[in-house]
User: Fold this.
Amino acid sequence: MMTTDGNGAAAPRLPRLGEPAPAFEAVTTQGTLRLEDFAGSWLVLFSHPADFTPVCTTEFAAFAKALPRFRELECELLGLSIDSVYSHIAWMRNVEEKLGVKVQFPVIADLDRQVALAYGMIMPGESRTETVRCVFVIDDRQNLRAMIYYPLTTGRNVEEILRLVKALQVADRSAVATPANWVEGEPVIVPPPLTQEAAAQRVATPDLECVDWYLCTRTL
Assistant:
């Protein structure tokens, strides 16, 4: 059954984890950019409801301060709202003037809402016009790896987004998973065995710490 938006029109299918991220070409505060421009690096694409709003201002300052840490992970940042590029520029200048933080990552001016619709950033139950606070983590192969949606009232935790990128990269490099509340340097979860013989061997492996045959961790 086809879904519809709040106006009865057919709604685009939301992006799905593990699939290629929706391609786009958009005007930004750093010129026209395409998703393919970020190929080979990780990307955190995040939307905000509107320029010159209090929660969004605190978020942009936090993302701007954390940009060097994202880049240490070979991950870029890309913001978005449906405001104009002129509004974005004025707001970025205001953030620098009032908060002393220079925003050095680009911000999409999505006036026609094409990127917002492709990524499912507009939730009619929350707002019919503004983009909600969405986060999309896109890997260096341009596949969508994680999505987080926040309501308009709740600012994002940039530390958690950094942690998420690190966890995804560790999982890719080492073919492992990460437990609840994992932070860099802590033990990781090894994939569970798929046979009875492997299960018996697993609990006897000296470099693993096992709660039981299906839950074992190791230090990288």
